[in-house]
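A further point concerns the way the authors explain their paired sequence and structure data. The central task, working out the structure tokens from the amino acid sequence alone, is never made concrete. I therefore recommend that a typical entry be quoted early in the introduction. An entry of this sort, consisting of the sequence and the corresponding backbone structure tokens, reads as follows:
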Amino acid sequence: MQPPYQGPPAPGGPELYDQFPGCYRHPDRPTGVRCIRCNRPICGECQRPGAVGFQCPDDVAAGRATIRQPRTIVGSSAYGSTPIVSYLLLGANILVYLATALAPGGNIVDNTGTTLFRDWQLWPNVVGHQHEYYRMLTSAFLHIGPLHLILNMAALYMMGPGLERLLGWWRFAAVYLLGALGGSAMVLLFGDLRQAVAGASGAIFGLFAAAWILSRVSGIDTRQITITIVINFVFTISVPGISKFGHLGGFLIGGLATVALLGWTMNPSGQSSALRKRTPTAQSASLAAILAVLVILSVWRAGVIANKPERPEISASAAVASPSVIHSVENPGENYTGVIRRNWQTSAAEAPIGGAGTPSAETWLFPADG
């Protein structure tokens, strides 16, 4: 009996397969495919499809390295990631407000009677005499009432993500925080020493300046942002109870920080030369220089305040009577908390120099169409 027919043998038999070279990354895997650029054998795992044929992983990586990645006007990646800093700032401001509102002495509508609010607000007299410089930053996360919080956070939500994608996360954070510190420094330098200030408006006005400058340099129509800025400054000047120096300082320092990121020029023709040559190291050094100037001016001003001959002396027997906090609106139709009168029981060691102050709501206006 003859065995069943098996068909013709494969051409060359198993010896032909054994003659294929092994993959250059996996020598135990024979393959008949080679990279079209370097001609090295590549197995199925290492094959990268190209315009024609396959390439090896090394040549694909080398090709990507020679391609210039698209960058924004300040050198950030053009492929914007999730604006995580904007969302973190939103969350931080909201959490701080809730902390002041839910603590003893505060509520959702009136959050200024808490210890946290008192300890974090910017009070120039206290900064000068007690050197509590942290107030210059912590005050930018406080808000006086829910309307103040909603307006500032609405502006941050509208402008923050777009600016962060353009600037990159660390440049955006630097402009925001420098704007906040710039507003506080201006209040410390020129504001009423007995007037307490709170709000993120300095940082928000810094973002206004950044948006205007970047639009101008990029050749984008600036009429809309210009109108928004003008309305906000008119509102700042015309409405009492608003920290004018805080808004102005945030706008100036935020704009200065943006110009520093651009290479100290606003000339669009410089995009192909000066702007593209700006490295993160040079940008960081420029921002650090601005911060150093703010620190020097603040420390100098604090020394001047501490040495004022009219500094009030508080005796050990001096105590302020009532710890009550009263909110009232001076004129009908005002959309901000007009007056906050604060008195609290304290000892001489704890009493703020200069007596009780009136926190100023750094309110601002952001048009619905802007």
User: Anything to note?
Assistant: DSSP finds twelve helices and six strands in the chain. The longest helix spans residues 280-306.
